[in-house]
């Protein structure tokens, strides 16, 4: 357990907005030095400025988590500025909204590259550093969509299910290295995640188009909780070495339904014998 975060180093991908921005403020308030990576230079600079500007406490690095070179560059810049890293929040994500039968191969590649491989590249870049120093914590941002099924969010949900599995395996593998792992599975959070098309790869068609479902999701997420609530629970999870972090309760019934469906699978198997 990490019981003192003062003057330690926190790294956050997707740190320019939403949950990433809230994490940056919360861990800075805990006395940590903060390194932020984000694909959007404007929002990245805004958060760096909010935290006091690029200097001996804050670092901002443009980083596209689809690129292992960019993620390794974020690590190298962090180590050069601060000497090491301790809490690594692999948080960047995108959420195209479309039924699975209407999700293009390009959209699949984009969401997998960002949501899953972006986390895997972060583990590759920072995991050995934390394990070698036997001190640290990795936070993987998944979603309640990684525990349930959500209509028109099949590709997003598939990657978030994968992040839950990746984080669980990583926690077991790092158990003897004094490095904790948490997986964050929020419900509705008032962010711009359903406006991810603003960061589409060059030349890629908008996978959501003018779909009415996309607008409905955008309206629904505006009623979600503040990212600050998520950041508060993540901070506590790092201190407590808590694996599953489910900060808001709005989707608890759907998560319980998934658990019941698994139990029904056990019952069906036993009855079929």
Write the SSE topology.
Layout lengths: L8 E5 L4 H12 L3 E6 L2 H10 L7 E5 L5 H15 L4 E4 L14 H29 L2 E6 L12 H20 L5 E6 L27 H10 L5 H14 L3 E2 L6 H21 L1
Parallel strand pairs: 1-2, 1-4, 2-3, 4-5, 5-6, 6-7
Fill in the keyword field for this structure.
globular; 8 helices; 12% strand; single chain; seven-stranded parallel β-sheet; 273 residues; 7 strands; alpha/beta; Rossmann fold
The helix/strand series, from N terminus to C terminus, equals EHEHEHEHEHEHHEH
CATH superfamily: NAD(P)-binding Rossmann-like Domain
Strand order of the largest sheet: 3-2-1-4-5-6-7
What is the end-to-end distance? 45 Å
Structure, described:
With 273 residues, the chain is α/β, with parallel strands linked by helices. The chain has one domain: Rossmann fold. 48% of the residues lie in helices and 12% in strands. The protein is built from eight helices and seven strands; from the N terminus they run E-H-E-H-E-H-E-H-E-H-E-H-H-E-H. The protein has helices at 18-29, 41-50, 68-82, 105-133, 154-173, 212-221, 227-240, 252-272, and strands at residues 9-13, 33-38, 58-62, 87-90, 136-141, 179-184, 244-245. Strands 3-2-1-4-5-6-7 form a seven-stranded parallel β-sheet, sandwiched between helices. Helix 3 runs parallel beside helix 4 (105-133) and helix 4 runs parallel beside helix 5 (154-173). The longest helix has 29 residues, at 105-133.
